[in-house]
Amino acid sequence: MSRLVVVSNRVADPRKTSSGGLAVAVGQALESSGGLWFGWSGKIREDGTPGEGELHTSQAGKVQMATVDLCREDHDAYYLNYSNGVLWPVFHYRLELADFRAADLNSYRQVNKLFAHKLHSLLRPDDIIWVHDYHLIPLAAELRAMGCRQRIGFFLHIPVPPPQLLAAIPDHEWLMRSLFSYDLLGFQSETDVTHFRHYAESELHAQLGDDGLVDAVGAQVHARAYPIGIDVDEFQSLGENGDAQDMYKKLKSTYSGQRLLVGVERLDYSKGLRHRLYAFRRLLENYPENRGQTTLVQIASPSREAVGAYEDLRRSLESLSGSINGDFGDLEWNPVRYVHRSVARKRLPGLYRAGSVGLVTPLRDGMNLVAKEYVVAQNPEDPGVLVLSRFAGAAEQLQEALLVNPYDVSKTAEMIQRALHMSLEERIERHTALMERLREHDVHWWSKTFLSDLNSGR
Ligand code: GDG
Questions:
Q1: How does pLDDT run across 226-254, given as a tens digit for each residue?
Q2: Which end of the chain, N or C, is surrounded by fewer C-beta atoms within 10 Å?
Q3: Global pTM?
Q4: In the structure, which protein residues have their CB atom closer than 6 angstroms to any atom of ligand 1?
Q5: CATH number of domain containing 407
Q6: Tens digit of pLDDT for each residue in 342-369?
Q7: Residue 182 is part of which domain span?
Q8: d(CA 386, CA 364)
Q9: For residues 293 and 259, is the Cβ–Cβ distance under 8 A?
Q10: Known catalytic residue: 421?
Q11: Number of domains making up the chain
Q12: 288 and 204: one domain?
C-alpha cells in the first residue's frame, strides 16, 4: 500500500488537539492511515541563511513528522508578506489589502524550492503526496523539476476569486501555471472550481473537458470541489466531556435570563467581525426588546499579529464593542462580551451549545468549520439557529441555515431577530436536515474521496 505524505505550512502532533481548521482536518486524516507529515517547524532562526534550513524528524504515533526551520528573512517574506500579505487578501477578494513586492515573491519561490529539496530526500517511489494550501502552490512544480514522478494532489482551503482579481497578482501566470504540475486539484466549493476553470480558459487558453478536466500549458489536471467536513462523532463526544459541560453551565448561570448570540473565530478581516458588530448594534436599535435580554459573546482568538492589517482590525473591534457597550449597556448588562483570547478546544462545544444563535458571517470564507461545529454541538431536542453568510463555502451545503449577506447590516439584524424567535418545530426541522448533510460529508468522507480520486487518477 502506498504511504500518505501530507505537506502543509504548519504541522501539528495529530494526537493533540489544536485550534486551526487545517491542522484538525489533516491531523485526523493522517492519524487513521499513518504516514509522513512535512512542513515548517514553526521555528525562526535569527542567524540563518535565506534558502537554507535544518530538517528535523520525529515520530508521533503512526505519523512521522519532518519539519524545516526558516531563517528570519525567509519567514517574513514567504510567510508574512507573500502568503499572508498577498495571497490571503487577494484570494479573499481583498485586493486593496495586498502589498505586492517582487522580493517577497522571490522568497516565496525560494522557500518552496527549499521545502521541495528537503522533502525529495525523504520520498519513496510509491508515495502519494497531498499538498495543502496557498503557501505551497508551486511545490509540485519544484518537485517535478527534481524528477519526482509520484502522484501529487493539491487542496486549497481558501476561496478562489474571480479571474480578474487573480490576474491582478503580478506574475499570476507563473503562479497559476504551477498548479498544472499536480494530478488533482481540490477546492472547497463549486464557485471556486468555476472561477479556476474560467481563469484557466481566459488567461491560459485552456480546453475544458468533462468531470473537472482542464487542459492547458501542455498538461491535464482535474479540478473538483471536495467540501471539507468535520469529525461529527469526535465533536459530539467532545461535547460530552466535563470541560464542555462546565463551560455550558457556567455560561447559563452567568447569563441567566439572557439569550446568547455566539461567535468564535480567529481575529481575521475575512471573518466579517466588524460587520457583525454593526448588525448587532442594528438589532438593538431596531428591536429594542432585546436590550437587557440578549448578549453577544464574541471570541476572536489572536492570529497573525505580525501582519499590519490584523493589528488595525483588533483596534477597531475593541473600539466598536466598547462603543456598543457604552451606548446601550447599563449597570446590569453589557451587550457585547468581546474576548481577544483563545478558548480551549475541549470547552468549545459548551460555548456553542449555550448560544441560542450561532453567528457565522464571514465576508468570504473557503468553507468555515465553525458553522459545522456549532450545528453539531446543539441539543437536538432544543437546537440553536445558525445564521450563516452566503459567502462562506459552507453555504453551498448548509442551505437550512438562515443565510445572510453580511454587508447588508439591516437584513442581518432582521435574520438574527428571526432566529431568536424561531419555533421549536422549525428549529428541529432545520437542525435535523443540517446534521444529515454534515454526517454524509464529514472529514473522513473528504479525505477518503480526495485520496481515492488521486490514487485512481480519476
Ligand atoms: C481555513 C479556511 C476552512 C477558532 N477559534 C478558536 C478555535 N477555533 C477553531 C475552530 C475551527 C477552526 O479554528 C477554524 O476553522 P475555520 O474553518 O472556521 O477557519 P480558518 O482557520 O480560517 O481555516 C476555512 C478551513 O481552513 C478548513 O479547510 O474551512 O475557510 O479559512 O475548528 O473551532 N479553536 C479553539 N479556540 C479558539 O478560540 N480551541
A1: 999 999 998 999 999 999 999 999 999 99
A2: N
A3: 0.97
A4: 19-22, 24-25, 157-158, 228, 264-266, 299, 301, 342-345, 348, 365-370, 373
A5: 3.40.50.2000
A6: 999 999 999 999 999 999 999 999 999 9
A7: 4-229+443-456
A8: 17
A9: yes
A10: no
A11: 2
A12: no
